[in-house]
TrEMBL record:
Residue numbers annotated as active site: K81
Residues annotated as binding 7-chloro-L-tryptophan: K81
Pfam families assigned to the protein according to its UniProt record, in alphabetical order: Trp_halogenase
Taxonomy of the source species: Bacteria, Pseudomonadati, Pseudomonadota, Alphaproteobacteria, Sphingomonadales
Keyword annotations from UniProtKB, A to Z: FAD, Flavoprotein, Nucleotide-binding
Gene Ontology molecular function: any one: nucleotide binding
Binding site for FAD: G15, G16, T17, A18, V188, L335, I348
Name by which UniProt lists this protein: Tryptophan halogenase
The organism's place on the tree of life at top rank: Bacteria
Length: 506
């Protein structure tokens, strides 16, 4: 690459969580030595600000930015998250848990799940979650940082955070600006292209102009650059994911925050409960084919705990992904690049992942389309994997009490998901792709929770002496339950290590 071809300036259009994650990561990695970074946003344009539940890779992002975790938890009024409790998804009155971290430990050449399958087939009274340290802590309302207890039964757990999304954006803005990112307040009124069809200049409402070599579109569902300017289309996934709207509201806490997210199925969708230190985020995700906004709002407000302090707010969305997430000299991030409903809290992860791949395929000013092509292939694969995992929660339902759930049960599955399920049904073997987000623990938890079971277990398990195996599993289960019960409660841990200042919610 000739020096004259190097990127000299990158402009991020839009703030919010996505924009400031991008700005903070670039500021951290380039340290002012490669190119200038400018972020353009308008205080007159609101952000969605309801993506408040994260997954464990988010903790890697915090560490990567060299942010003090305790400081971040205090500043964002965060609480800890050990997984997701799913209620009423398979049948009304049933629940299951998707834990973070490990479930058991491999035994000789066999993964633990296969050993558990044999134990269940032999009539042993073991539940899969009996061996998941995150589930054991969540069940008891307890918490401890797993890396502080690596030689104990809870050492295999992992965790994420429930956060205040607006406070996250504020924190990352300060972090990025301290490291040289320029913030420009203004609303984009026009976009000019050069003779190659590349974005060249943003014209702001007050007449100021912002030029750059490369642009990152974080303008949310408006997709100002990637769609409205460059005309990139959108692959609609509503044939598999029927929910298209959400109602969001915030309430005062009633009791201490639980260390997990609740995802409770409703007649025409599901609702979330995300407990922070100072308040609780609530939402009702639903299918507008069967339910109006007013009805969905009433249902949510009838079920929330505590006084409503913000909202309700209606958030319409279309599940899918851009035909090209990166096109010419525009990379789209966050809602501008695609949207998968928040059932497994993947939105912030996809922003982080999108930037990670951008660093891998970092272009010069010519933006070689082969780099963009490989980026798009990898990111689209990530979106597709997550889509299939979310569809699994719906398609395996045995509920037939409403037209919505009958439609979910009867849907024609994506080939990639259908083939994965069919393989699993043989003896629990999973099809795992390259560098996927959801690994075996996640798939096992949801498949089992939704009632999809293998016909048998893997033959290699028969190498292990049965009596020894079952006795060992019984001891491990008892030890995990005993240790989890001795840990501090979630609230006690927060109070001792990272309690945030009280907030006036009026």
């Amino acid at each position: 690459m000739r020096a004259s071809d190097a990127l000299r300036k990158v402009c991020i259009v839009g703030g919010g969580t996505a924009g400031w994650i991008a700005a903070a990561l670039m500021a951290h990695h380039f340290k002012g030595k490669l190119f200038e970074i400018e972020l353009v946003e308008s205080d007159d344009i609101g952000t969605i600000g309801v993506g408040e539940s994260t997954i464990p890779p988010f903790m890697e992002l915090i560490a990567r930015l060299e942010i003090n975790e305790q400081e971040f938890v205090r500043a964002t009024q965060a609480s800890f998250k050990l997984g997701i409790e799913f209620e009423d998804w398979r049948r009304k009155g049933e629940s299951y848990f998707h834990p973070f971290g490990s479930i058991g430990q491999p035994v000789e050449l066999s993964e633990f799940y296969q050993c558990w399958l044999k134990a269940r087939q032999a009539g042993q009274p073991f539940e899969l979650m009996d061996f998941a340290p995150a589930a054991a802590m969540a069940r008891n309302g307890r918490f401890m940082l797993p890396f502080k207890a690596q030689k104990t039964p809870i050492g295999g757990a992992a965790y994420a955070l429930h956060v205040d999304a607006k406070r996250v954006a504020q924190f990352l803005r300060a972090h990025a600006e301290e490291r040289g990112v320029t913030r420009t307040e203004g609303m984009v009124a026009d976009v000019r292209l050069d003779d190659r069809g590349f974005v060249d200049t943003l014209v702001l409402k007050d007449g100021r102009e912002v030029t750059a070599d490369f642009f990152i579109d974080c303008s949310g569902f408006r997709a100002l650059l990637i769609e409205k300017t460059l005309g990139v289309g959108y692959e609609d996934w509503s044939q598999w994911l029927f929910c298209d709207r959400a109602i969001a509201a915030q309430t005062r806490n009633v009791g201490p925050p639980r260390p997990y997210t609740l995802a409770q199925a409703q007649d025409y969708g599901w609702r979330w409960r995300i407990p922070l230190q100072h308040r609780t985020g609530n939402g009702h995700v639903f299918c507008s084919e069967f339910l109006s906004d007013d009805e969905a709002t009433r249902i949510l407000l009838d079920q929330v705990e505590g006084e409503v302090v913000a909202g309700p707010m209606v958030v319409p969305f279309k599940t899918g992904v851009r035909d090209k997430i990166w096109h010419r000299n525009v990379l789209s991030l966050g809602l501008a690049s695609g949207f998968i409903e928040p059932l497994e809290s993947t939105a912030i992860h996809l922003v982080y992942r999108g930037m990670d791949f951008f660093f891998r395929y970092l272009p010069d000013r010519n933006c070689d389309p082969r780099l963009a092509g490989e980026y798009n292939r990898r990111m689209t694969a990530d979106y597709t994997e997550i889509r299939d995992f979310i569809v699994l929660h719906y398609c395996a339902t045995q509920r037939n009490d409403t037209p919505f759930w009958r439609k979910c049960h009867d849907m024609e599955l994506p080939d990639s998901l259908r083939e994965r399920i069919e393989l699993f049904r043989v003896n629990g073997v999973l099809r795992e792709g390259h560098d996927e987000l959801f690994r075996a623990v996640s798939w096992h938890s949801v498949l089992e929770g939704m009632g999809i079971h293998p016909a048998s277990y893997h033959p290699l398990v028969d190498r292990i002496e049965e009596g020894w195996l079952f006795e060992g599993m019984s001891q491990v289960r008892a030890q995990l339950a005993q240790v989890a019960g001795t840990l501090p409660t979630h609230q006690e841990f927060i109070d001792a290590h990272c309690r945030a200042e009280a907030v006036d919610l009026r």
